[in-house]
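Input chain follows. Return structure tokens only.
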Amino acid sequence: MIKARIHIVRALCLVVAGFAMLFSGCTRNNGDIGLWFGTWHMLSVTADGETETGYDKDIFWSFQNDILLLTRIQTGNDGIHRVERRYGTWREDGDMLFINFSYSDDNDNPDYTYRPFEELHMPHDSEVPLTIEKKSGTNIILRYNSPDGVKYTYTLKKQS
């Protein structure tokens, strides 16, 4: 009788320990990436200080681990949302953010899944250096100096 109770108590301890390990696990793959984690709405794009009027405020940047997901959500005339996704990688180094879209599933056929949206005016075949002009828990401002001398500024607002 006492041995049976000891076995039950041990079994319950193992179950409780298992649940504790399960629920204390990481929610962010490869650890905490700080304020970058989550989804950011790109509110505006400017070129040399002038607002890009062709941008419809429909692009979101999502950071997790070293993956950058760009998502465009558009609503058609029929009221249906259309979603387009683009993938790259990112890394932060000091006051610089480096993003890279130079990936492909098939080198013979360019895959637009790994290219930035046209509104960003960024190359897809090399790492893109962005200067971090502002970084807080609610807003990020990034600047890209293109090879042709245009300074693009991206204003992001935290969504989740």
